[in-house]
Amino acid sequence: MIAMIFSITASKETSVQGEDQTDMPAAEAEETQPDKEEIIRVINGLADTLKQEADDSYKLKNYETEQELTEAFEAYVTPELAGQFVDYYFRVEADGVYVFPTETMPWFQEENEYDMINTSNHSVRLVQENENDMVGSYTLVVEMTLQNGWKIQDISYR
User: Fold this and answer.
1) Mean pLDDT throughout 118-128?
2) What DSSP element (H or E) covers 137?
3) Interval 17-54: pLDDT, tens
4) What is the pTM (predicted TM-score) of this model?
C-alpha cells in the first residue's frame, strides 16, 4: 500500500550574509536561481518523501523514527517546513511512525511553464498555473531558498 499525502555578482574574496546562514561564500551567492533540473529534483524529492509505503495499519515501512523521517524531508525542504510536514501528515507512536491517509494535493507539473522570481539574492518564488480534475484551476507558489543547496521553504495555493 502506498499512502499519498497528497544574480548577484561578487568577487571570489567577498561573502554574502544570508538570512538563515552566516557568511555564504561568494561562489554560492552567484547561484541566484536553481536550474530546471534542480527544481524538479527538489520538488519531486519532496513528493516522493510524502508518498510513503505503509502497512494495512498505515505504519511506515521505511522509517522507524520521527528523526529519520524529518531528516528525509530536510534533503528537500527547510528544517522548519520539514517539522510542519511531519507534524501534519504523520503521527509518532511507541512502535513507529504512522501516516494520516489523505488525498494528493495539487502539485507541480514538469511539462507546464512556470515563472521564477528572485525574491532576494538567495531566494526565489516559482509560480505555476495548473488544472486538475479534482480541484479545477489553481496556482501553485513554491518559495525556495539557498540553504546548503536549494530547499523549499514554503508552498501555497491560490
Assistant:
1) 93
2) strand 136-146
3) 333 443 444 444 445 889 999 999 999 999 999 999 99
4) 0.76
Question: Which residue type sits at 16?
Answer: V
What pLDDT is recorded for position 133? Answer: 81
State how far the Cα of 141 lies from the Cα of 144, in Å rounded to an integer. Answer: 10
Print burial letters for 60-96: b (CB count within 10 Å at least 16), e (below 16): beebeebeebbebbbebbbeebbeebbeebbeeeeeb
Count Cβ atoms below 10 Å from residue 131 Cβ, excluding itself.
Answer: 11
Nearest-angstrom CA–CA distance, 42 and 158: 21
Question: What residues pair up with 2 in beta bridges, in sequence order?
Answer: 53
d(CA 117, CA 2): 35
Q: Collapse the DSSP code of 144 into the 3-class scheme (helix H, G, I; strand E, B; otherwise coil) and give the result.
A: strand
Strands 90-93 and 96-99: antiparallel
